[in-house]
Amino acid sequence: LGGAFWLNDADCLILREEGAEFTLGQARALASVAALGGSPLIFSDGVGSLAADRLAVLQALLPPLPAAATPLDLFSAANADGIPSTLALALDANAAGSDGWLLVGLFNWSDDTADVGVRLRDAYGALGAAPPGGFGGDAELCDAAAGDLGWHAFDFWSGRYRRLDGADPTLTFPVRPRRCVVCAVRRVAARGAPQYVGSSVHLSCGLELRKWTEGRGTRGRRALTLALGVGRAVDAPSVWLHLPGSRQGDDAAPRLAGEEPAAGVEHVWDDVWRIRMDELMPGAEESCTVEWGGV
Questions:
Q1: Helix/strand/coil for 15
Q2: Dist CA 223 CA 233 (whole Å)
Q3: 159 CB-near residues (< 8 Å, 6+ apart)
Q4: Cis peptide before 63 (omega within 30 of 0)
Q5: Sequence-ordered list of residues with C-beta below 8 angstroms from that of 138, at least 6 positions apart, any chain
Q6: Strand, coil or helix: what is 224?
Q7: What phi and psi, each to the nearest 5 degrees, are found at residue 139?
Q8: Which of 161, 205, 242, 294 could make an SS bond with 198 (beta carbons 3.0 to 4.6 A apart)?
Q9: What is the mean pLDDT of each run of 10 residues along the chain (295 residues)?
């Protein structure tokens, strides 16, 4: 009945080191539960006393997610202790670079490292939703020669990227004891369209995106202008982008407009890149333009 007749009380979020017996990874797990639970975010620690890495955990939750995630294994036979280990939330596109995506929380509440995962078809089914084009090789999402193009999977807390193959994969990560992975999952777009994969700015890995405009840059290269905004300052924001046609080590590699080649750009995997942007200011949007591809 949470969200219908009342807002569930998730208790206050504790992130401090002093007097709290949990690591940074465990603090991130607690924060992820609070964020995905969709309850009011109550914080009682003195902000000025927090270490920078713990304060960054709190900042990543603001503004709060628009809805609560759904536990996927609450009544599963494998869930003997009754504590959900997989939660999922379907988020809608708010800019052209995001066609709607799945935010998945994978939690390990045991004392040993364990693989935690969920079949994406089951996750979408539990939410009564579907990815763009559905499952099973829709023509809009498949290359005629290569078949289904797969999925982007981006872990917010670690900044790890993984490409999932096939039309109906299972998302699985090894998770350390009492820690979590919060992963943004997106279907790889067809027809060479660039995509927003994730960021270091907000747990949602997408709600911070304010602008997405494609065009042409210098020498006829492809160009993408994007802007971020979360209503607060972010010292060193990074975004992860899928830029089809980009290649490492030649003129097709992406570069920030007005910058030296390779400045602020890091190759991640195949045609996925990390782009480091300038500081975000409170109440403002920060934009950048990325150019890539041959003439």
A1: coil
A2: 26
A3: 198, 200, 238, 240, 274
A4: yes
A5: none
A6: strand
A7: -60, -30
A8: 205
A9: 65 79 91 90 85 93 92 75 89 72 95 95 92 62 53 97 92 96 93 92 95 91 94 94 90 86 88 94 91 78
